[in-house]
Design brief:
The protein is an alpha/beta fold. The protein is built from eight helices and seven strands. Strands 2-5-1-6-7 form a five-stranded parallel sheet. A two-stranded antiparallel sheet has the order 3-4. About 40% of the residues are buried.
Length: about 190
């Protein structure tokens, strides 16, 4: 049986994959439980590794567009992986802190810049954050999923019914991206949260 404790032990046993960092990528469609899973994994890793930084997709997307200026949201997920490789993983490869701008959804612009240290383990969690470009540097990739209706209900309960139309479009685009990228099939571990 796969538990966060067994996955934490697997991560701990792995050699660093990005400079001094063991990178973990958690992906899957919106509402699948990625944020909760990442929090559980971080708790399981903490006794061995101390503080484990988590980079959340919601903080690195440029709003609903994911990457402003991309021709469509599917292409934007690929551009996001390129940006994260340059802004996050490249500093880690050099053993340096990464400085990562975060998106302010209310202001619709970049907000604060956060410093992400090259800790022994860093977790990326969010739609598109186990894209091929990122997972190639990971010691573990996890795919989470749930039924479409369950995922939509979770997102609307969290963020409000006012985003229903955008969320339905997002679900179509994320499915197209995941199929194109082969994210689910490439994951080391696939889990359902329903």
């Amino acid at each position: 049986m796969t538990t966060t404790a067994t996955l934490a032990a697997r991560v701990s046993a792995a050699a660093p994959s990005v400079g001094p960092v063991r990178l973990v990528c958690v992906d899957g469609p919106a509402g699948a439980g990625k944020t909760s899973f990442a929090a559980d994994l971080v708790r399981a890793l903490a006794p061995v590794h101390g503080e484990v930084p988590v980079v959340h997709g919601d903080g690195v997307y440029e709003g609903w567009d994911v990457v402003v200026g991309a021709p469509d949201r599917v292409a934007a997920f690929a551009a996001l992986a390129d940006r994260l490789d340059a802004q996050l993983l490249e500093p880690f490869r050099q053993g340096h802190d990464a400085r990562l701008p975060t998106w302010d959804w209310y202001a619709g612009t970049w907000g604060v810049t956060v410093t992400v240290p090259p800790a022994p383990v860093v977790v990326l969690e969010g739609v598109g954050l186990a894209a091929r470009r990122l997972r190639e540097s990971a010691v573990l990739t996890v795919w989470l999923d749930a039924d479409d209706e369950v995922r939509l209900a979770r997102v609307l309960a969290r963020d409000g019914d006012g985003i229903r139309a955008e969320m339905l479009a997002w679900q179509r685009d994320e499915a197209r991206w995941h199929d194109l990228d082969g994210t689910r099939a490439a994951a080391d571990v696939r889990l359902s949260t329903t």
